[in-house]
């Protein structure tokens, strides 16, 4: 666990020295979400219906946008190769990196969402559920995305390729995440959706670091 | 016979489906054959050049 | 009696074996196809009482959709075999199946759209089946894109293998989520009965079932023949500097 924590602290420290990376992703999310009313029209009813879907799709894209730098810098400067031969299990180190990725690219989005939700005239209940769903769902995006990032490490056109691999896998998160808000708005209650997102989070927490570690080994062979 | 091919006014849908299946499978087979010809052709040229050089 | 399976896992000994199997599977595909088409068009009822002759699309639509799902599972199976036994051939078999699987996924969508228009009045419905077929098509495209982006064949083998395994774990989850999603968002504008969506309210007769089965066997044999053909191409391309390939080309047996 010490190894996991030191990787986490290290990645966060590096990111704090280059704040621009984190802010770029955050502003990408804000701009995408703000563009939709301009494209669709300002009717409050329409906006309220599309809000969960728009927020979630923007979150998927933002999370994917930041996947490129998950392993790339460590790959270029040789740190990743050190991790592969380190005595600590690679899965654990990878998990540290993924959690750092979520803290840097997922959590800021979750924090800004209530503000953006006001643009879409969402009720307080709906906003609360949206934040809860994003809180459970965005780490899944980081975990699944890490597999794609590891598979495409160092390949030409890696950015577009990663979206082709990862976006289909994101679909369940999108369905249950946006569905949670829809269910609250229509008075059904979001417990089932949130529980499924939680289950998905546990599943990806167990399986994804392992798969990512395997993908990294393949990339280095 | 023409009446049969008309498929009870569904001709476009029925033949559009069967046609696309036929086209896709045919194109796949033709492309595979071309791939095989190209590689074998290249290889035999490569071998000939190598034999000439060693001779 | 025991067959040494590992003997055939080396390209040099599998190449001629695959070559001798291709004509048989091709012949079987053609035979099943001809008989299947005959039964579909001349033995099976001319028209369904509800859908008219448009139901004839079923005889290729259902087998194509089945094959697209089945092929993905087989790809994952070969990937697992490859990971366990470290045999190159298993990975090659997996990736040789991918383009054919993508074609069948596309055909499933295409024929589904053309069947949907006369039956439901629209080419596309966001129904669980169609949506998951579309996602399966995307998974194939991702697999093929990854395979063609990696130049080192060893890395390509194992990376695509891992992707197939990750995909196959996710397919049931994706299917479940899409199903849940589509039951919550029942489209009201189209005349669409979810209970009958399975058979699209068809009353299947024996001859219809037989025709569908024959077309499935036809696609099955076609897939095997094409995959073996593709794996042979792949072997020659990869091992063109090896003696066994050069000997084959020299003797004209390739």
Labels describing this entry:
heterotrimer; B: 55 residues; mainly alpha; rod-shaped; C: 254 residues; 2 domains; 0% strand; globular
Describe what you observe in this structure.
- The complex is a heterotrimer of chains A (221), B (55) and C (254).
- Chain A is an all-alpha fold.
- Chain A has one domain (2-220).
- Chain A is built from nine helices and no strands.
- In chain A, helix 3 packs antiparallel against helix 6 (90-119).
- Chain A is elongated.
- Chain A starts with a helix and ends with a helix.
- With 55 residues, chain B is mainly alpha-helical.
- The relative contact order of chain B is 0.07.
- Chain B has helices at residues 2-5, 11-54.
- The longest helix of chain B is centred in the middle third of the chain and has 44 residues, at 11-54.
- Chain B contains two helices and no strands.
- Chain B is 87% helix and 0% strand.
- Chain C is mainly alpha-helical and 254 residues long.
- Chain C has two domains: 14-44 and 215-254; 48-187, no CATH class.
- Helix content of chain C is 75%, strand content 0%.
- Chain C has seven helices and no strands.
- The longest helix of chain C has 33 residues, at 11-43.
- Chain C is globular and about 65 Å long.
- Mean pLDDT of chain C is 85; it is low at 187-199.
- The chains are: A mainly alpha (221), B mainly alpha (55), C mainly alpha (254).
- Chains in contact: A-C, B-C.
What is the count of structural domains of chain C? 2
Distance between the termini of chain B: 67 Å
Instruction: Please describe the biggest sheet of chain C, giving its number of strands, its sense, and whether it closes into a barrel.
Output: none
Average of pLDDT of chain B: 86
Secondary-structure element series of chain B: HH
Helix/strand-derived category of chain B reads: mainly alpha
For the terminal residues of chain C, how far apart are their CA atoms?
31 Å
Report the uncertain regions of chain B: none
Strand content of chain B: under 5%
Order of helices and strands of chain C: HHHHHHH
Oligomeric state of the chains present here: heterotrimer
Report the average pLDDT across residues of chain C: 85
Largest sheet of chain B: none
């Amino acid at each position: 666990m010490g190894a996991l924590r030191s990787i986490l602290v290290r990645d966060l420290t590096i990111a704090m020295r280059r704040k621009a990376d984190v802010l770029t992703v955050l502003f990408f999310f804000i701009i995408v979400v703000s563009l939709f009313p301009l494209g669709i029209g300002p009717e409050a009813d329409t906006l309220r219906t599309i809000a969960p879907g728009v927020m979630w799709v923007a979150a998927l894209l933002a999370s994917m946008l930041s996947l490129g730098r998950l392993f790339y810098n460590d790959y270029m400067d040789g740190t990743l190769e050190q991790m592969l031969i380190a005595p600590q299990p690679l899965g654990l180190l990878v998990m540290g990196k993924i959690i750092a990725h979520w803290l840097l690219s997922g959590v800021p989005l979750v924090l800004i969402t209530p503000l953006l939700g006001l643009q879409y005239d969402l009720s307080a209940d709906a906003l609360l559920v949206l934040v809860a769903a994003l809180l459970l769902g965005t780490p899944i995006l980081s975990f699944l995305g890490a597999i794609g990032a590891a598979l495409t490490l160092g390949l030409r056109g890696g950015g577009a390729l990663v979206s082709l691999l990862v976006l289909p896998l994101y679909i369940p998160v999108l369905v249950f995440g946006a569905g949670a808000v829809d269910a609250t708005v229509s008075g059904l209650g979001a417990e089932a959706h949130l529980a499924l997102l939680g289950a998905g989070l546990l599943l990806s927490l167990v399986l994804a670091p392992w798969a990512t570690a395997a993908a990294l080994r393949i990339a280095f062979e | 016979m023409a009446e049969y091919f008309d498929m009870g006014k569904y001709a476009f849908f029925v033949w559009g489906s069967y046609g696309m299946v036929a086209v896709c499978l045919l194109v796949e087979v033709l492309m595979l054959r071309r791939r095989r010809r190209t590689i074998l052709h290249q290889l035999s040229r490569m071998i000939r050049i190598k034999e000439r050089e060693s001779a | 009696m025991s067959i040494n399976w590992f003997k055939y896992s080396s390209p040099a000994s599998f190449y001629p074996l695959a070559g001798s199997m291709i004509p048989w599977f091709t012949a079987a595909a053609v035979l099943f196809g001809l008989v299947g088409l005959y039964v579909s068009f001349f033995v099976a009822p001319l028209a369904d009482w509800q859908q008219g002759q448009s139901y004839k699309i079923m005889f290729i639509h259902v087998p194509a959709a089945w094959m697209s799902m089945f092929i993905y599972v087989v790809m994952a199976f070969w990937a697992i075999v490859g990971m366990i036994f470290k045999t190159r051939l298993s990975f090659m078999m997996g990736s040789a199946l991918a383009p054919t699987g993508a074609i069948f996924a596309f055909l499933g969508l295409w024929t589904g759209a053309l069947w949907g228009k006369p039956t439901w009045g629209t080419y596309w419905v966001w129904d669980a089946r169609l949506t998951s077929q579309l996602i399966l098509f995307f998974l194939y495209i991702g697999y093929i894109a990854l395979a063609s982006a990696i130049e080192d064949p060893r890395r390509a083998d194992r990376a695509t293998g891992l992707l197939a395994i990750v995909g196959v774990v996710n397919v049931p989850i994706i299917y479940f989520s899409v199903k849940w999603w589509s039951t919550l968002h029942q489209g009201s504008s189209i005349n669409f009965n979810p209970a009958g969506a399975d058979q699209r309210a068809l009353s299947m007769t024996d001859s219809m079932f037989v025709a569908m089965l024959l077309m499935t066997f036809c696609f099955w044999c076609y897939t095997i023949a094409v995959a073996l053909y593709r794996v042979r191409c792949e072997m020659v391309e990869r091992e063109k500097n090896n003696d066994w390939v050069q000997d084959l080309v020299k003797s004209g047996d390739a």
